[in-house]
Specification:
By secondary structure, the protein is of the alpha/beta class. The longest helix is centred in the middle third of the chain and has 41 residues. A hairpin with a 2-residue loop joins strand 1 and strand 2. It folds into two domains: 128 residues, translation initiation factor eif-2b, domain 1 (Four Helix Bundle (Hemerythrin (Met), subunit A), Up-down Bundle); 221 residues, Rossmann fold, CATH 3.40.50.10470. The protein has twelve helices and 18 strands. Strands 8-7-6-9-12-17-18 form a seven-stranded mixed beta sheet, with helices on both faces.
C-alpha cells in the first residue's frame, strides 16, 4: 500500500541485503518511523513490544527472525533456541507457530552452511505468499460489499470494523480492510466506522491512519457505540480480522470483537471475518476453552499516549493510583455468530464443513 504516494510493505530487507526493516507501529499515528532488526533478539522484541502486530505480520517477522538467527549461528541447537525465543513472545496468534514450523522444516533438510541463504529465501517467499493471499481476500470480500451496495440502492455502504486488520497487520493489503480497499478502488461508495479499540487504540491510531492515507471515508467511534449504530440501521455489514480460527469456525480477535458480533446478531447485521489460511488452527475445535488468551501489562489500560496541542508526545495516567488493572488482549467469537469467513479461496460458512469445502486437504 502507499504512504504519501510511495509504496510500502510492513517488512522488507534493508539495502545491506541481510538486516530487516519494519514500520515501528508503536510510533503511529504521530510519527512514521522505520526500525532495523539485526538479531533474533531484536526480532523477538519487535513482536513482544508490538512494533509489529497482527497475526500475519507476526508470522512474517518470526520468519525473518529465523533468517537472522541462521546468519549468526546456523547449527541445530542455536536455531532451536531462536525458534523457542520467538515462539514465547505472544501466545494467541497461531501464525507465529505456523511460520516457525515452516522455517524449521525448511532448514532441517539442509546442511548448516546452506541454511542462511535458504532462510532468507523462505522468509521472502512467506511474505510474498501473505501479500497474495490478502489481495485475494480483498477480491472475494469486495463481492460482499458490492452486494451490500446493490441492496443499499445507491446509498453509501457503511462497514464497521474492529482493531486493525489492514495492511499494517499483514505484509500488505490486510485482511478485513483488503475488501474495503478493493471496493473503494472500484468506485463503490462506502464509509467505515472505525472502533477505537481500547486499550491500545489500534483502530483509532492505525486503521484510521491507513484509511486516511488511502482516502477512504471513515469515522472513528468509541468501542461501545457499535450496538447503537446497528440499532439505528447505520451499519450494513461488519468485517473483522482474526488472530486464530478453530477448525470449527470460532474466531479469536482483539478484545471487544465478541460484543460486536452479539450486537450484529441481535440486529440482523452480517458479521464477516477475513483471514488467510495460515490463521486456521486445525488442531483445536473449541475456541473459548482451547485458545490461550494473552494478558498484557496493565499499563496499557491505565495510561494513554497522545500528542499535545503544542506537538509533544506525552503519556498520562487515567486510573486512580492503586487500582488494579486486568488487560485481556483477545476474546473468542463462537462460529454461530459469524455469517461467513473470507479466505484467499473464497467465502465459506464458519464451520468445519465450510472450511473443508475450501481447504479439503487440511
Amino acid at each position: 500500500m502507499k504512504i504519501d504516494g510511495r509504496p510500502y510493505r510492513t517488512i522488507w530487507l534493508a539495502d545491506d541485503g541481510w538486516s530487516v526493516e519494519i514500520i515501528d507501529q508503536t510510533r503511529l499515528p504521530h510519527d512514521f518511523a522505520i526500525a532495523r532488526l539485526t538479531t533474533v533478539e531484536e526480532a523477538a522484541h519487535a513482536i513482544r513490544a508490538m512494533l509489529v502486530r497482527g497475526a500475519p505480520l507476526i508470522g512474517a517477522t518470526a520468519a525473518y527472525g529465523m533468517a537472522l538467527a541462521a546468519r549468526e549461528a546456523p547449527d541445530d541447537q542455536s536455531l532451536s533456541r531462536a525458534s523457542d525465543r520467538l515462539l514465547a513472545t505472544r501466545p494467541t496468534a497461531v501464525n507465529l507457530r505456523w511460520a516457525l514450523e515452516r522455517m524449521r522444516r525448511r532448514l532441517a533438510e539442509l546442511a548448516p552452511a546452506d541454511r542462511a541463504v535458504a532462510a532468507y529465501a523462505e522468509a521472502a517467499a512467506l511474505c510474498d505468499e501473505d501479500a497474495a493471499f490478502n489481495e485475494s481476500i480483498g477480491t472475494h470480500g469486495a463481492d460482499l460489499i458490492r452486494q451490500a451496495a446493490r441492496k443499499a440502492g445507491g446509498r453509501v455502504v457503511n462497514v464497521l470494523t474492529h482493531c486493525n486488520a489492514g495492511w499494517l497487520a499483514t505484509v500488505d493489503w490486510g485482511t478485513a480492510l483488503s475488501p474495503i480497499y478493493k471496493a473503494f478502488e472500484e468506485g463503490i461508495r462506502l464509509h467505515v466506522w472505525v472502533d477505537e479499540t481500547r486499550p491500545r487504540n489500534q483502530g483509532a491510531s492505525l486503521t484510521a491512519w491507513e484509511l486516511n492515507h488511502h482516502g477512504v471515508p471513515h469515522t472513528v467511534v468509541v468501542d461501545n457505540v457499535g450496538g447503537h449504530l446497528m440499532q439505528h440501521g447505520m451499519v450494513d455489514l461488519c468485517i473483522t480480522g482474526t488472530d486464530r480460527t478453530t477448525a470449527s469456525g470460532d474466531v479469536c480477535n482483539k478484545i471487544g470483537t465478541y460484543l460486536k458480533a452479539l450486537a450484529a446478531h441481535d440486529n440482523g447485521v452480517p458479521f464477516y471475518v477475513a483471514l488467510p489460511s495460515p490463521t486456521i488452527d486445525w488442531t483445536i475445535d473449541d475456541g473459548v476453552r482451547q485458545i490461550p488468551i494473552e494478558q498484557r501489562e496493565g499499563s496499557e489500560v491505565s495510561a494513554l499516549t497522545g500528542r499535545t496541542a503544542d506537538g509533544r508526545i506525552e503519556t498520562v495516567t487515567i486510573t486512580p493510583e492503586g487500582s488494579p488493572v486486568a488487560n485481556y488482549a483477545f476474546d473468542v467469537t463462537p462460529a454461530r455468530l459469524v455469517t461467513g469467513l473470507i479466505t484467499e479461496r473464497g467465502v465459506c460458512p464458519a464451520s468445519r464443513e465450510g472450511l473443508l469445502s475450501l481447504f479439503p486437504a487440511s
